[in-house]
């Protein structure tokens, strides 16, 4: 830690404390997360979940970037250097004297869901979504503190008391550790409600009080859902009083209906029926961002942004462009077609010129080129290829080294031979023999039937099927 100067303490948790520090060499500011646990070797560092998870997740713009890992061997102290943000979401909510702007709430919610979607896509879930673990810097939001994250495909049961009680989902409260990634969606719904009302949704004082707070608002679930939870629990008594629930609408009567509907979908009691992060990002509530973007049209050329001295890892993110590309990607592709330096008339003329170059008049016929290179005999072979009779209608003569046609048997009433030889007169047989001699020499120009001979090959001595 000789390259960093410690300045002031930003916060403290159960397992670590966060200190603002400055790089002595270039003067940039960073956030140092100093772990309270002591480590003996670097092999132990590889087992830390937060470092493992950030190796896969830190490329997302809505997840806090890990800049450096500093391990002091003498003291066994581990320091994680992150990009520096202004404050966490809890501090921002406490600073609000009036309700937050709807547009800002939509931006923060969208970024939070994008971070959760990215985690779930790569097989992780956070397990501790709450305002204290969400950092903001201006209008930019980033998810932090991955010390409690787990792999989705790991075996149950998990730790029961993992997330903060107020943001703990029903499946965490009513089962013995049988929960999964939908608990992050429940926490996101609680955070969204807190941004809207500036108050927590379910502030329970203990585990039982937390369940009562949920039932007071959402109502007691049906017996089938409780039986499903009961199979995964040995400690919880499922003798809940039947409550109808007062609902969420009365707490958010001034908020748009689409926003209220999104909170209801995120805070669905049954985890199997709860909306996913991917589907939540397509909700109508985020149409307000596109609407505001159309009203305040931004110029095509953006001013060059100065590099912040606070952190070299923090970069501005165009949230509205990202949202617009997800919800209206087809329209965006059509817009790119005409968004060029040339005019629409110029574009049409260039397109017409491309069509002319690829027209049929400019394409040389491969059969025509082949006919010019081959003899007149091969011309018959190319033009009337589909008219060759099957070779099985001819017999090979060893003495004359030629093929003879099968003649029609007058006593046989079969129509299979009549379709190749119409009469048995000597003149017709003589003409056929002359053509058969050409056939034996590899010049097939007998065109009695429409069946091709391409399925048969000759080796000069016998007939064999291809």
UniProtKB/TrEMBL annotation:
GO terms for molecular function: ATP binding; protein serine/threonine kinase activity. This is Protein kinase domain-containing protein. It holds the Pfam family Pkinase. Residues 4-286 form the Protein kinase domain. The keyword Oxidoreductase does not apply. Keywords: ATP-binding, Kinase, Nucleotide-binding, Serine/threonine-protein kinase, Transferase. SUPFAM superfamilies: Protein kinase-like (PK-like). It comes from Brachionus calyciflorus. PANTHER family: MITOGEN-ACTIVATED PROTEIN KINASE.
């Amino acid at each position: 830690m000789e390259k960093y100067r410690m300045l002031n303490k930003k916060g403290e948790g159960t397992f670590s404390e966060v200190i603002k520090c400055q790089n002595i060499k270039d003067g940039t500011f960073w956030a140092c997360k100093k772990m309270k646990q002591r480590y003996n070797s670097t092999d132990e560092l590889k087992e830390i979940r937060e470092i493992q998870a950030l190796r896969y997740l830190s490329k997302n713009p809505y997840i806090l970037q890990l800049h450096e890992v500093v391990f002091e061997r003498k003291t066994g102290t581990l320091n994680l250097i992150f990009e520096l943000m202004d404050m966490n979401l809890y501090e921002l909510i406490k600073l609000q004297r009036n309700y937050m702007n709807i547009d800002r709430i939509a931006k923060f919610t969208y970024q939070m869901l994008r971070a959760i979607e990215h985690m779930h896509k790569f097989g992780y879930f956070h397990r501790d979504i709450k305002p204290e673990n969400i950092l903001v810097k201006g209008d930019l939001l980033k998810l932090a503190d991955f010390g409690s994250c787990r792999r989705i495909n790991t075996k149950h049961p998990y730790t029961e008391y993992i997330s903060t009680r107020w943001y703990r989902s029903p499946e965490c409260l009513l089962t013995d550790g049988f929960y999964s990634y939908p608990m992050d969606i429940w926490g996101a719904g609680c955070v969204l409600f807190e941004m809207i009302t500036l108050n927590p949704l379910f502030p329970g004082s203990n585990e039982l009080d937390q369940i009562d707070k949920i039932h007071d608002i959402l109502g007691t679930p049906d017996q089938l859902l409780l039986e499903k939870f009961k199979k995964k629990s040995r400690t919880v008594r499922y003798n809940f009083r039947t409550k109808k629930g007062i609902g969420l609408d009365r707490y958010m009567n001034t908020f748009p209906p689409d926003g209220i509907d999104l909170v209801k979908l995120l805070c669905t009691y049954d985890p199997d029926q709860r909306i996913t992060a991917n589907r939540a990002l397509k909700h109508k509530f985020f149409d307000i961002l596109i609407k505001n973007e159309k009203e305040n049209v931004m110029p095509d050329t953006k001013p060059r942004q100065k590099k912040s001295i606070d952190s070299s890892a923090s970069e501005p993110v165009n949230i509205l462009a990202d949202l617009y590309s997800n919800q209206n990607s087809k329209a965006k592709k059509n817009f790119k077609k005409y968004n060029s330096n040339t005019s629409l008339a110029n574009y049409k003329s260039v397109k017409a010129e491309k069509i002319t170059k690829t027209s049929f008049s400019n394409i040389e016929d491969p059969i025509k080129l082949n006919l010019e290179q081959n003899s007149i005999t091969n011309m018959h072979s190319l033009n009337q290829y589909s008219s060759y009779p099957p070779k099985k209608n001819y017999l090979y003569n060893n003495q004359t080294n030629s093929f003879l046609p099968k003649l029609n048997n007058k006593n046989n009433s079969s129509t299979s031979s009549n379709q190749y030889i119409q009469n048995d007169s000597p003149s017709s047989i003589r003409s056929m023999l002359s053509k058969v001699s050409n056939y034996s020499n590899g010049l097939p120009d007998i065109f009695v039937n429409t069946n091709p001979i391409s399925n048969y090959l000759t080796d000069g001595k016998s007939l064999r099927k291809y």
